[in-house]
Amino acid sequence: MNPRRSFLPAVAGCLAGAALAIYAATRTWSLRVVERPGLPDLRSAATGAQHAPWLVGLALVALAGAGALLATRGLARRLLGGLLALVGAGVVAAAIAARAGLEVGRAGAFWPVACAAGGALIVGAGLAAARHGRSWPVMGSRYERPTAPAGPADPGGRSGPSAASGLRGVETPDPGTAGETGPDDQRTETRADTRAVWDALDRGEDPTLR
């Protein structure tokens, strides 16, 4: 398998192993029944977490580590993989030790085995991260949306060069000054008067006699 393709299976395996270990550790691992003639039987049940309290703690560490695999990269991810492998090995060892020291009575051996299997999944995910973590993809900036540069605010709600270009060349008439002569009209009249003066001088006329 391509090392890059082992990324998601490793994360999923770590999550599944941690969830399985937690669930199995909270099931009944031992059940002792004391029969009492004429009275109800006396039952004494205990879960794996009661026999090995650190089982749930180790599984929770593995659960958090699965999420951390998505956020880390390079050497940090490989070191995290080594830590997860140790945590998974601890789950397996704790499940075996707790099961070996139990008088299970009527309880079966399924849940201790399931807990150990969850620890094995965590070990596999940790070893994969320690070996291939440097080549795994990184959840990073390529998923972030680029931020547009800020521009001058536009009263109409727009900003930036596009808003400014949209207003260029467009004059909005003022309702309060409709029918009045604006600055552009005054400049046009001034240019016309100046041209008329020069035309009169070219014809030999004195414009001041008008």
What structural keywords apply?
210 residues; 7 helices; mainly alpha
Would you give an account of this structure?
This protein is 56% helix and 9% strand. By secondary structure, it is mostly helical. The protein has a domain at 3-139. A two-stranded antiparallel ribbon has the order 1-2. Helix 4 (74-100) packs antiparallel against helix 5. The longest helix is centred in the middle third of the chain and has 27 residues, at 74-100. It is rod-shaped, with a radius of gyration of 41 Å. The relative contact order is 0.14. Residues 162-171 have low confidence and may be disordered.
Write the layout of secondary structure elements.
Layout: H1 7-25, E1 28-36, E2 39-47, H2 48-51, H3 54-71, H4 74-100, H5 110-132, H6 161-167, H7 183-202
Antiparallel strand pairs: 1-2
Explain briefly what this protein structure is.
This protein has helices at residues 7-25, 48-51, 54-71, 74-100, 110-132, 161-167, 183-202, and strands spanning 28-36, 39-47. With 210 residues, it is mainly α.
Please provide the ordered H/E string of secondary-structure elements.
Answer: HEEHHHHHH
Poorly predicted sequence stretches spanning 5 or more consecutive residues: 162-171
**Major sheet: arrangement of strands:** 1-2
Please tally the β strands and state the result. Answer: 2
Distance between the ends: 100 Å
* Fraction of residues in helix: 55-70%
Q: What is the C-alpha radius of gyration, as a whole number of Å?
A: 41 Å
Number of helices: 7
Instruction: Choose one word for the global shape.
Output: rod-shaped
* SS-derived structural category: mainly alpha
Strand content: 5-15%
- Tell me about the largest β-sheet: 2 strands, antiparallel
Mean residue pLDDT: 76
